[in-house]
Amino acid sequence: MTKIEELPHQLLNEEFTEYDLSYKIIVVGDPSVGKSCLTMRGTKNHYEECYFSTVGFEFYNFNIRVKDKNIKLQIWDTCGQENYRALITSFYRNSSLAIIVYSIDNFNSFNNIEIWLNEIKTQSNPEIKTFLIGNKADLEDERQISIEKAKKFSEDHSFDYFVETSAKTGFNAQEVFIRAAKELYLFQLQYKDRAPLNGSIAPIRTPYKNGMNTNNNYALEDEGDTVRKKKKCC
Q1: How far, in Å, CA of 48 to CA of 128, rounded?
Q2: Checking CA distances to 35, which of 75, 76, 137, 158 falls within 20 to 30 Å?
């Protein structure tokens, strides 16, 4: 079995359209843990010191070649406010991978990981992969959750990957999405001949060519439906 560390990869331009596999990824977590900043840093290598809090969701693309396949990650960055929770859970459908983000300086955001995880497990496909991300690693002096505690939590709850990141410095931000592409690529290799069970959508995606999906049963939501209303928040 090929190891993730052995997989060669090459980042592709954001506008690249000829890809073989497409996966939907959802980023969730409490408000103000840095989900949007992390996603923007990881996909665009851009950081804003004072960012507007997300209302609804934001949509990003991350294109990468892993070994012999061009892969498109469609990343849905969600808001964490309670009053939008019902809206967010509807976006879990057809997701291949969920990234749960907490902030290392916010114990409540860590305590709420289980709530987010349970939501994902009940609202999405049963084989969804899960990443646990401890953001704001640059705030070491304000740390409330040790890396050992988070790592044990990750192992106890069978997360597929755990790492600490910093959207501000860029530490491990891009690595999260590179790792996601490689995890899903290996999953595709392992289960490429298996059909989805009970009509559900497995993490395998129908190949896209020139921006077109050849099987409407596997089509992801139209990014034109994205709501991009924001309110200012430091």
Answers
A1: 31
A2: 158
Please give, one letter per residue, the 3-state secondary structure of the chain: CCCHHHCCEEECCCCCCCCCEEEEEEEEECCCCCHHHHHHHHHHCCCCCCCCEECCEEEEEEEEEECCEEEEEEEEEECCCHHHHHHHHHHHCCCCEEEEEEECCCHHHHHCHHHHHHHHHHHCCCCCEEEEEEECCCCHHHCCCCHHHHHHHHHHCCCCEEEECCCCCCCCHHHHHHHHHHHHHHHHHHHCCCCCHHHCCCCCCCCEECCEECCHHHCCCCHHHCCCCEECCC
**b/e for 142-166, b at 16 or more Cβ within 10 A?**
eeebeeeebbebbeeeebbbbbbbb
pTM of the full structure? 0.80
pLDDT digits (tens, 9 = 90+) for 41-79: 999 999 987 555 555 578 899 999 999 999 999 999 987
Closest CA to 126 of 100, 161, 93: 93
In our burial notation (b when 16+ CB lie closer than 10 A, e otherwise), range 13-34 reads eeeeeebbbbbbbbbbbbebbb
Which residues face 27 on adjacent strands?
Answer: 77, 99
Contact 30, 81 (CB under 8 A): no
Rounded CA separation 63/184 (Å): 13
Instruction: Give yes or no for a contact between 132 and 164, defined as CB atoms under 8 angstroms apart.
Output: no
CATH topology of domain 4-210: Rossmann fold (3.40.50)
pLDDT digits (tens, 9 = 90+) for 78-92: 875 555 556 666 778
